[in-house]
């Protein structure tokens, strides 16, 4: 049961709606979990609440306090574990944005009543909610806390379940990745950042995972891989992607949907960082981009990236290719002195609050033709000339794209390839 009240002088006007979030990824009927809503005035007298639909009520008077029930049964779809509130016998996760009414101003103080032996963990004080949309609280009795203070931030890992990797290995990965992004994208505010690694409560096939980065909290739910090397590789991939989101979109405040940008650029930045840190080979980098091209080219019907109904897989695949094409263009035009990482850093530092996302992302995707053809338009990505400038060749066999390094790249092409990470393995071998 959830109970709450307004501080004196902060009540809504008469006939104000009492509304809850309706859906998130993996839980389309989120608001149907809300039941038994009761509102009361300052004297404790009941104020009638008329239900308009699941999660939306209209108060027929000025209310001062409320209470309601929330069904926190774990979701049926595994995607819901990382994106919505739920509780089982050993713990759970509280996403305050789907637990609390959608008021314009923050709720303020909050208190949790937990079972004996359970603890609450959050990137901010669990009793203070500044912004429910960014607030995540882990609750339970089996979390292992691991300090992972990095050069650039105070990281804490909360690990649950047994894995093929150790807690210290996970902390070292998180620290390394956070430091690399801090160097590339600029340092985040000196606050605490939380990374939660959970096994799925249900049995899932190896390799499945769901994650969300909300506020200063990264939450990953995953099955483990069959072998230790695969498990370590998968965790590094998960952390590279999700830690990027602490900067984009969580570190800036833009208006409008631009998921194609922050997901596409997260995928590309994760790939490039994987090569830099010798977690993946340059051939893996190219193979991933080739698969993205295959996915996008075969998509039917073709839609702009700005179309909210586009298949998310296609959105992220094309968004990653846009990031790659912009990176190659920047490297070519600056003789290797500027890349997409520097453009992202500038956006992170200079983006004003509540700026239009469509305007802000043009600071990074500065080529208007890329925006016109592949973001606001639905043209198939034609990248032969752009790849050639970087010493990369593309081939199409049936419905499948493959890309590879040219047999004899020129000196200029070698410079761009080197900045993309082509010679990274060779440099490591030379040091040995």
Keywords:
5-stranded mixed sheet; alpha+beta; about 425 residues; disordered C terminus; 4-stranded antiparallel sheet
> What class would the helix/strand composition place it in?
alpha+beta
Helix content: 25-40%
Overall structural domain count: 3
Q: What would you report as the Rg, rounded to the nearest angstrom?
A: 24 Å
Largest beta sheet: strand ordering: 14-15-16-18-17
What is the number of strand segments?
22
Anisotropy-based shape: globular
> Treating each run of at least 4 consecutive H or I residues as one helix, how many helices?
12
Percent of residues in β-strands? 15-25%
What kind of sheet is the major sheet?
A: 5 strands, mixed
Low-pLDDT residue intervals, each spanning 5 or more residues: 428-432
Quick check: average pLDDT? 91
Terminus-to-terminus distance? 61 Å
Describe this structure in words.
By secondary structure, the chain is α+β, with helices and mostly antiparallel strands. It is globular. It folds into 3 domains: 1-71, no CATH class; 73-247, no CATH class; 254-431, no CATH class. Helix 2 (167-185) packs parallel to helix 3 (228-244). The longest helix has 22 residues, at 312-333. The protein is built from 12 helices and 22 strands.
Outline:
The chain is α+β, with helices and mostly antiparallel strands and 432 residues long. The protein has helices spanning 96-99, 167-185, 228-244, 259-276, 282-297, 312-333, 340-350, 357-360, 368-375, 384-389, 411-420, 424-431, and strands spanning 2-5, 17-19, 34-40, 46-47, 49-53, 56-59, 65-70, 86-87, 91-95, 108-109, 119-121, 128-129, 136-140, 144-147, 154-160, 192-199, 209-214, 217-222, 254-255, 355-356, 392-397, 400-405.
